[in-house]
């Protein structure tokens, strides 16, 4: 098994068998996105229309925006294929290639990661980064290092978020008029207040039930944990993803957040629940941390990847200056997918004998150091004094 | 050219589609943004109106909905608080009807009147059924805060649940905020006039005529009954001659039929505005033993000028006087006074009067103080003349 560890993923699928090929996987992936897309449309379009706050044309905008994300991706990939493939530039030839590279998926996911009022030209730019830079430059489907959608989102997030906010940002028309939101998402409220306080972080948005259902402000596809879980459940049943990757990732974020909450003097379960239901944790857990190309392929690798992802998410979220943390940690970890894959493959085959034990020790040690560092730094952030660990680190 | 399009058709189609998405998507995005901004702006302004309407309902204490009441300004002049002659027109800014189950239950007039400064904007809520001023809410004013703050709850309580059927429809002013007080008095009265016009309410009006006011110089009763007033009142034209005190309260009937309390209140309200005699100057004390009579009047400053005259034994001449004053001549005419400091003007009048009973001409740039002194001497001379045909 170890000799396959450095190969291009996915390779553990019996791809020639009926109902098991990557084509089926991607179809399942798109089906799994459906509950998220439909909920997004309902929350940002239909419900707002029913509230009387937007017109009919605006009601369809969320749906148009998401589908446009996929469509733009396809178009860009088509142009790229035309430019690079001189042998067959016919429309039919290009369409054949596009049909096996699942070109719509990065665009769809990208659109779901972005705020509702993202200008279309920003979406086009992000789709260019995602499809051309993130995917096609590396050789296309199965060869990319970074999650394409995530790369597009991250670039736009770092460069054009001001433009998006000026165009209307995250809040749909119904949310924009709710005074208690004060123009901030739940994570934005944490970043601006710096307090672990239910009345500041949860109460203005309703209750944790609203966080779970998804009727809170946030990027298009990330608010509804319920819809994401439906999609995730479908993918697990269809064996497209492994259940333990999202569970370990969400569990790590949950656990670390719980400890941070406890260190700040509030050991309630509401804070870790708030932490996993706000922002993109759930969406990333199901649709991005499980992505077969840019994440480790073996079980132990997936476990370590999810653990590291959880630690980095909490680290970036509570210690860094960005309120979210999910995208940054995922992009960052994409770089280390290959080493993690290799290390864990060796561990699996050599067990704890040399060098398996060493690799295990390195990974576990790194993980522990990072986790403790995160807790200490986050603890300091929330004015909790941890004398010994704080002194050491 | 044909070959070019044939060879590149696919990329041209893709590119064209992307360009179209860029253009029309951009328009769609911009439309979305604009619609959202318009919606929020519209919502905020409607929210402001909603909150304002809720405050009006709360003010009226009844009803569920508010609708704009299209009514017009009523031409009616009132005295400026700071003047006895100049008048102004209050401004009707807005009017609303408060409805309960689609029935009009109250009306709110927003009226701007004049206090110490212009711009006392107040909402007056009126119960349509009981024809009562329910309550008022001050929306804005430009009054001097140190004066305006003297208007306490007791003052504003006068303005709540005040029936329009009162013949004497007025409020007591507050010392230290007299002008501001008057702005509410005028606003309230103007609201009643508007209500009378808009809702066919008849303002109670009792006809009477003040025929004369003279001073009572009777040496026994002049302090407690300083004014003798002759009035014709009522449907039967009753002629009344009665004593009134310095506050214009009815004291005692001399001839005629004693009026009821409504008339007494009316007389008290209206007598100070009459001009039969100088009502600003009055006797406040007399000591028979020391033969000292005290007279008071208002000059320029808010505190009155008080002069204590000492009479001779025959009670026909002033032999000495003590003046208590706190005038500030400088402010009377914008620092135009250049003479000796206070109480130079008062002393000049005193000296001249004690010498030969004359009143000197009004001192330039201190004429208000001068006239006050002249009024005091005139009154003391009237007393001396009435008592013993005397006078300085």
Task: Summarize the structure in words.
- The complex is a heterodimer of chains A (393) and B (392).
- With 393 residues, chain A is mostly helical.
- Helices cover 66% and strands 0% of the residues of chain A.
- Chain A is globular, with a radius of gyration of 21 Å.
- The two termini of chain A are 39 Å apart.
- With 392 residues, chain B is an alpha+beta fold.
- Chain B has 3 domains: 66-198, no CATH class; 208-269, no CATH class; 282-388, Sufe protein. Chain: A, CATH 3.90.1010.
- Chain B is built from 9 helices and 16 strands.
- Chain B has helices at residues 2-7, 9-60, 145-148, 153-157, 178-198, 261-270, 329-332, 344-356, 367-388, and strands at residues 65-68, 78-79, 87-88, 91-100, 103-114, 118-127, 132-140, 162-163, 208-215, 227-233, 238-244, 250-255, 282-287, 292-297, 305-311, 318-324.
- In chain B, helix 8 (344-356) packs parallel to helix 9.
- In chain B, 28% of the residues are buried.
- The model of chain B has no long low-confidence stretch (mean pLDDT 88).
- The interface between A and B is medium-sized, with 32 and 28 residues.
Index terms:
heterodimer, A: mainly alpha, about 65% helix, B: alpha+beta, Sufe protein. Chain: A, 3 domains, four-stranded antiparallel beta sheet
Distance between the termini of chain A: 39 Å
Write down the overall mean pLDDT of chain B: 88
**SSE run of chain A:** HHHHHHHHHHHHHHHHHHHHH
Unreliably modeled segments of chain A = 1-6, 383-390
SSE arrangement of chain B, N to C:
HHEEEEEEEHHEHEEEEHEEEEHHH
Instruction: Give the strand line-up of the largest sheet of chain B.
Output: 1-4-5-6-7-8
Give the N-terminus to C-terminus distance of chain B in angstroms.
Answer: 126 Å
Q: State the shape of chain B.
A: elongated
Shape of chain A: globular
Tell me what portion of residues of chain B adopts beta-strand conformation. Answer: 25-35%
Distinct helical segment count of chain B: 9
The main β sheet of chain A shows up as: none
The greatest interface between two protein chains, and residues involved on each side, is: A-B, 32 and 28 residues
Let me know the number of strands of chain A: 0
């Amino acid at each position: 098994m170890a000799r396959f560890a450095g190969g291009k993923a996915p390779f553990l699928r019996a791809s020639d068998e009926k109902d098991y090929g990557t084509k089926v996987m991607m179809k399942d992936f798109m089906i799994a996105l459906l509950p998220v897309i439909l909920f997004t449309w309902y929350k940002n379009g239909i419900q707002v229309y029913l509230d009387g706050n937007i017109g009919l044309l605006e009601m369809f905008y969320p749906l148009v925006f998401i589908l446009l994300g996929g469509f733009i991706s396809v178009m860009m990939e088509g142009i790229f294929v035309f430019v690079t493939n001189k042998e067959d530039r016919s429309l039919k030839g290009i369409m054949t290639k596009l049909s096996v590279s699942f070109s719509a998926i990065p665009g769809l996911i990208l659109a779901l990661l972005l705020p509702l009022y993202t200008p279309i030209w920003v979406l086009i730019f992000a789709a260019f980064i995602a499809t051309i830079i993130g995917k096609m430059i590396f050789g296309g489907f199965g060869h990319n290092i970074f999650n394409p959608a995530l790369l597009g989102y991250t670039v736009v997030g770092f460069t054009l978020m001001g433009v998006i906010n000026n165009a209307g940002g995250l809040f749909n028309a119904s949310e924009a008029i709710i005074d208690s939101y004060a123009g901030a998402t739940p994570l934005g409220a944490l970043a601006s207040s710096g307090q672990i306080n239910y009345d500041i972080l949860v109460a203005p948005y309703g209750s944790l039930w609203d966080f779970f259902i998804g009727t809170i402000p946030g990027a298009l596809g990330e608010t509804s944990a319920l819809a994401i879980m439906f999609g995730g459940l479908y993918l697990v049943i269809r064996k497209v993803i492994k259940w333990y990757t999202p569970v370990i990732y969400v569990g790590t974020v949950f656990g670390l957040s719980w400890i941070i909450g406890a260190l700040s003097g509030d050991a309630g379960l509401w804070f870790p629940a708030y932490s996993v239901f706000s922002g993109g944790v759930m969406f990333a857990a199901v649709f991005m941390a499980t992505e077969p190309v840019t994440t480790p392929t073996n079980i132990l690798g997936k476990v370590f990847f999810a653990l590291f992802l959880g630690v980095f998410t909490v680290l970036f979220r509570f210690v860094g200056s960005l309120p979210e943390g999910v995208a940054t940690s995922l992009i960052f970890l994409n770089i280390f997918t290959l080493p993690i894959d290799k290390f864990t493959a060796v561990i699996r085959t050599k067990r704890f004998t040399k060098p398996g034990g060493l690799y295990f020790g390195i990974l576990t040690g790194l993980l522990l150091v990072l986790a403790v560092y995160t807790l200490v730094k986050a603890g300091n952030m929330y004015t909790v004094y941890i004398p010994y660990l704080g002194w050491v680190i | 050219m044909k070959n070019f399009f044939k060879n590149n058709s696919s990329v041209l189609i893709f590119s064209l589609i992307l360009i179209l998405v860029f253009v029309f998507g951009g328009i769609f995005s911009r439309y979305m943004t604009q619609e959202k901004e318009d919606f929020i702006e519209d919502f905020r302004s409607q929210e402001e109106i909603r909150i304002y309407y809720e405050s009006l309902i709360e003010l009226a204490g009844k009803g569920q909905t508010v609708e704009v009441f299209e009514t017009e300004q009523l031409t009616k002049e009132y005295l400026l608080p700071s003047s006895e002659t100049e008048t102004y027109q209050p401004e009707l800014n807005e009017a609303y009807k408060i409805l309960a189950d689609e029935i009009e239950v109250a009306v709110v007039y927003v009226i701007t009147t004049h206090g110490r400064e212009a711009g006392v904007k107040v909402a007056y809520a009126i119960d349509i059924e009981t024809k009562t001023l329910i309550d008022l809410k001050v929306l804005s004013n430009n009054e001097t805060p140190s004066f305006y703050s003297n208007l306490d709850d007791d003052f504003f309580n006068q303005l709540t649940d005040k029936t329009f059927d009162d013949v004497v429809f007025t409020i007591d002013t507050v010392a230290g905020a007299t002008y501001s007080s008057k702005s509410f008095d005028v606003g309230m009265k103007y609201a009643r006039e508007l209500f009378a016009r808009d809702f066919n309410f008849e303002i109670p009006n009792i006809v009477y005529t003040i025929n004369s006011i003279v001073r009572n110089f009777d040496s026994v009763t002049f302090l407690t009954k300083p004014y003798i007033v002759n009035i014709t009142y009522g449907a039967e034209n009753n002629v009344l001659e009665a004593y009134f005190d310095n506050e214009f309260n009815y004291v005692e009937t001399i001839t005629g039929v004693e009026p009821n309390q409504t008339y007494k209140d009316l007389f008290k309200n209206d007598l100070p505005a009459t001009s039969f005699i100088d009502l600003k100057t009055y006797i406040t004390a007399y000591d028979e033993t020391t033969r000292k009579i005290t007279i008071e009047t208002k000059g320029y400053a808010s505190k009155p000028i008080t002069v204590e005259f000492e009479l001779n034994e025959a009670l026909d001449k002033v032999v000495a006087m003590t003046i208590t004053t706190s005038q500030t001549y400088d402010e009377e005419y914008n620092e135009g006074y250049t003479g000796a400091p206070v109480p130079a003007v008062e002393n000049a009048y005193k000296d001249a009067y004690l010498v030969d009973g004359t009143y000197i001409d009004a001192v330039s740039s201190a004429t208000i103080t001068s006239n006050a002194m002249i009024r005091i001497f005139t009154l003391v001379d009237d007393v001396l003349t009435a008592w013993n045909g005397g006078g300085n």
